[in-house]
Amino acid sequence: MWRYESEMAGGGDRDVFIEIGRISVESSDHSSDSISLEIPTTDFGSQDRLQLLVQDRLNTIQKNLDTCQPFKIFRAPPHLREKATKMYEPKMVSIGPYHHGKETLRTLEEHKWRCLHDFLASNPKINMEVYLQEMRLLELRARQCYNESIEMESDEFVLMLLLDGCFILQYYLKKRDNVLDTFFSAHWSVIYTDLILLENQIPFFIVHKLAFLSGDSVDHTNCRDKCPLLDLIFPLLPKPGCLRMPKASCGKVSHLLHFYYECMVSHLDQTNYKRTQPRSMKTRSFRSLWSSSPSRSGEDYFLDVFPCATVLHESGVTFRRKKNPRDMFDITFHDGVMEMPLMSVGGPTQILFTNVIAFEQSQYTSETTFTSFARLLDSLIDTGNDVAFLRQCNVLQPYRQTDQETAYFFNSLADGTSFDYRKHYFGSVFKKVIQYSNSTWPKYRARLMHDYFSNPWTSISVFAGIILLGLTIAQTGYTIYSAYHR
């Protein structure tokens, strides 16, 4: 505001106040005479205010990026979630803020308080105030792990961390020690998949801190090579394939799904696929976004048009169950034989596979091991006939679902995923299979086996025909020989 004093007609001083967009002239003796003039605000003033607003917001974001860790707990990407919403939602228990307070999950909320009671009773020397204080100290760090702003009051959020963390600990402890818990026993198979869902997580350091305070674990800064808490959880993880304890320290574990994922892929052969370290969101560039789905040309294009199992079988490829697989990704091809571990596919397995895919897609890395696995299965399975064939080969075992339902699941598992075909984990297998199936002799041999040796009766007929043909040739030769020597 500017002030200007001047002599005006009629005597007396006038105070002139100039504001943005307005001029007001008032008498110094507070008379009722006044003159007001509205002046439109200029565009320059509006632009200045907008510039200040934008700059202030950018400064706030930069400050947050400099002080917080990268996001670790995500919701499923919308383009994946819309296909199978129920696959990402818990059936019995909510862990973390994303599904907290849902009416359909309130049944188990009361049991969380029982778990808290049992947890406090396990070490009476430490009262509840200590646990609440530790949770408050970790509140900000825990909030920063989620990629969405958590609209929960501080007390509600801290209580959620305490209840959910104690529930997870009591669940695994009672399972390990075979402690009778009728609720856990009745819903074991449902709860253990709920705890691995992408959207149903709390930071692992919350669970670890509670275990440390109660005396069931040690501080993760001192258990780099061996963590009692991970040793507790590992044997109780769902196992659709062979899992191995990762070598990374527990301080690098983000949550239970992340630990489960590392148990699946951390030990894989580095020569097949070069794994990269996670990058924070602030170091990820637009170039990396474009390079995540590069265009394909030349020999890499066949990775997306790989024939299904029945077509490969007609081309001479044999499928066989691998006897002693190292893990679920131990799929090899040699001399016309593709060996695969036996894989059981059912409701829990489908939920786990779907969430592992979503987890892998939500990470700021170029890691696509499980996406490669899903793409391979999608290529091998087109229809229920492919499922039936692989089932006959003893490499696929559907559980409580039809062959067509199993085919539909694998066809949709990797739909919408971002994928770099140049880093396909099974790229070498694909190339060997294509080269073999495109050669001429395997096709003729496969057709011969299918037409003449597919069952015992046709085989007997073929051998009888060969013997008859041999006898005919021998008789003809003998007749010619006899006539020649007369």
Q: Would you kindly provide a written description of the structure presented here, covering whatever features stand out?
A:
By secondary structure, the protein is of the alpha/beta class. It has 20 helices and 9 strands. It has a 4-stranded antiparallel beta sheet, with no helix packed on it. It has a 3-stranded mixed beta sheet with strand order 5-7-6. A hairpin with a 6-residue loop joins β3 and β4 (34-38). The protein is elongated and about 120 Å long. 28% of the residues are buried.
Q: How would you concisely characterize the structure shown here?
A:
The protein has 20 helices and nine strands.
Largest sheet: 4 strands, antiparallel
Task: Please indicate the percent range of residues in DSSP E strands (runs of 2 or more).
Answer: 5-15%
The class by helix and strand makeup works out as alpha/beta
* Uncertain residue ranges: 1-11, 17-23, 273-299
Shape field: elongated
